[in-house]
From TrEMBL:
InterPro entries: Cyt_c3_hydrogenase_gsu (IPR012165), FAD-bd_FR_type (IPR017927), Flavoprot_Pyr_Nucl_cyt_Rdtase (IPR001709), FNR_nucleotide-bd (IPR039261), OxRdtase_FAD/NAD-bd (IPR001433), Riboflavin_synthase-like_b-brl (IPR017938). It comes from Hyalangium rubrum. This is NAD-binding oxidoreductase. Residues 2-101 form the FAD-binding FR-type domain. It comes from the Bacteria.
Length: 230
């Protein structure tokens, strides 16, 4: 049975088309310090709505503030987006095994995300930025349907400056004028051999995850080096 704790909505900003970034404050609650690993998620509920799961997009130890990426179009998600700042929300403790970031120290790390699946991957990237010298090459393969659907695009420049290579690809560019890569993320894996000890973290639609796993295994990466956050 889920145990519920208080949180307060303290910030909200648009993240991309149909996606909103919310920040919850849990500083003065029993939840402070309970976010231990990037990739963990939590249950969220409001009166009158069915509870939902959301991954934590901020890094562990983020001073009692948790970022959530909310995909609009469902009852609870739309209600969260409409809440006034300062409103109370009930949440659970962070759950799930998350990503084993400690295994990536000194190694090449490949990150894969589509759509709102960037949320737990962002937690990984921000954790790496806090201790960048401890990690090897890091590349993010990020897929979205349209150019306007990249959540946290505002962070891409800072990620690149921190040595996190960002490879965005659009599956449905239409008449947007998009000049970058198109298609699915697994189609854009670099051709060069994977470095010994390379790890991969994946979050997104099941079809994408399966395609990425298949492509990585075909490149010789063992299943033990491929991780999802559930």
């Amino acid at each position: 049975m889920t145990e519920w704790y208080p949180a307060t909505l303290v910030a909200r900003s648009p993240a991309a088309d149909g996606l909103t970034d919310l920040t919850l404050d849990v500083t003065h609650t029993p939840l402070a310090g309970t976010h231990q690993r990037p990739g963990q998620y939590l249950h969220v509920r409001l009166p009158g709505y069915e509870e939902c799961l959301f991954a934590i997009a901020s890094p562990p130890g983020n001073a009692g503030r948790w970022d959530l990426l909310v995909k609009e179009g469902a009852g609870l998600a739309d209600a969260l987006v409409r809440l006034p700042l300062g409103a109370p929300i009930e949440v659970s403790r962070p759950k799930g095994r998350g990503f084993p970031l400690e295994l990536a120290r000194g190694k090449t790390l490949l990150l894969f995300a589509t759509g709102s699946g960037i949320s737990p991957i962002r937690s990984v990237i921000e954790s790496i930025r806090l201790d960048r010298q401890e990690y090897g090459q890091v590349t993010l393969y990020f897929g979205a349907r349209t150019p306007a659907a990249f959540a946290y695009e505002r962070d891409f420049v800072e990620w690149e400056r921190a040595g996190v290579r960002v490879v965005p690809t659009v599956s449905q560019p239409g008449v947007s004028g998009w000049q970058g890569l198109t298609g699915y993320v697994q189609a854009h894996l670099a051709d060069e051999p994977l470095a010994p000890g390379t790890l991969a973290f994946i979050c997104g639609q099941q079809e994408m995850a399966q395609g990425v796993i298949k492509a990585l295994k075909a490149r010789g990466l063992p299943a033990s080096a491929i991780h999802q956050n559930f």
